[in-house]
Amino acid sequence: MRIIAVANQKGGCGKTTTVINLAASLAALGKKVLIIDMDPQGHASIGIGLDTEDIDNTVYEVLHQNSEVSMKDVIISLTPFIDVAPSNIRLSALEHKLSGHEKREDRLAEAIITMNTDYDYILIDTPPSVGILTFNALRACREVIIPIDSSYFGLHGLGKLLETIILINEKLNHTVRIKALATLVDKRTKVSTDVLQEIRKIFKDNTFSSEINLNSKLKEAVGSGKPVLEFDPGCSGAQDYLNLAHEIINEEKSIEVQQLILAIKSLNEKNRHPEIYSPKFVNGGILFTVKAADAKSIKVAGDFNNWTPAEEDIFQRDDKGVWSKIIRLNPGLYQYKLVIDGKWTTDPNNPIKVQSPFGGSNSVLVVK
What we know:
alpha/beta; Rossmann fold; Immunoglobulin-like; seven-stranded mixed sheet; five-stranded antiparallel sheet; 13 helices
């Protein structure tokens, strides 16, 4: 599950429009999405078709101190692929309500953790300010999309938001990945062209290739309470957000590798304990170790040997019933299974797994 906040303290940059239409585009591509509206204006809720005045339980009821309302209690299902946790003007009182309370910036993260609901994406809309609501969103997410409108004022005021993100990264040990999104692009004007160049100069690789072009249908769609993909699927705005959704989904291979590398490093630290058996880096390659006193033979098969274990892939057993094998692997991401007495199984000591295209799961190993 990816948790992405969409944030910019400047209003009118397409922040809420991005949340609504990115959610709809991801849903159109088969992804399950939850929108969490952290703006007291409730524009993400209204813009996707909800009447926030008639909603009793909102994000505010979830986040205020000593609340007995959970995030699951306020979620409204709009389609089989889109749910919304709505807000309204009551949310503006949250900062006062939480004043002086410890860990007030962690309320949203804690609410998400206790949801126990499966989503592919959670998109968090934030208010046009850097206060407790935006801080909660940044603490809850791992990624931030910063929409920047292609005007001379587009880049103005970003410093405070970036300072907050850096503070969270450095002081609170919570890494947040940022990526800029150019919005309201009109390449017929020199202003748009200049700002686009400046965005890419500042954010470099942390800039989406996709751009959201100026399109009147985007405003009309929000006004009608519908995503543009539903309002006018043939317009350029709908295609722009579909392109963005595709780009975000395609990022996942590299993001997954980064996460797996961190997980493997963490796992390797645990392997300092002699009672833990799992793949770890040693001189000469990767050491696979399994404790299976009753086994007669153990082999390893994976995409590094075309899933066909050879003689050099057979484990050796010591007098304590521990089987081990060192295998040389080039840097890369590998999937594998153990073959214990002819039975194919995931590595019981490696918690990192992915779904196999042939059913079941494969264990995963990252070699740097």
